[in-house]
Design a protein that fits this description.
mainly alpha; 62% helix; elongated
């Protein structure tokens, strides 16, 4: 389910990629901390899944950062409450 924050009148907000980039960055940091904190207690499958998730986050961050940098830099719009 997509949050109403991202959709207004059926259209995605202009800053969708930027918000996804921030969310991916935060999630990557949390996953890296989780990996460091529990590396010894995870089984092989859990470790591989966590490492895969971290790798995908990094790939997506590169993808979104390239897309964002190709366009004119605009600040994220403040939501209308």
């Amino acid at each position: 389910m997509v949050s109403a924050f991202f959709i207004i009148n059926g259209q995605y907000m202009d800053d969708e990629r930027e918000i996804l980039f921030i969310a991916l960055s935060n999630s990557l940091q949390m996953n890296n901390k989780m990996l460091e904190a529990s590396k010894d207690s995870l089984n092989k499958d859990q470790l591989e899944l966590l490492q895969y998730t971290i790798n995908r986050h990094e790939e997506l961050l590169i993808k979104y950062s390239n897309q964002i940098l190709e366009e004119e830099v605009k600040p994220i719009k403040r939501p209308q409450w």
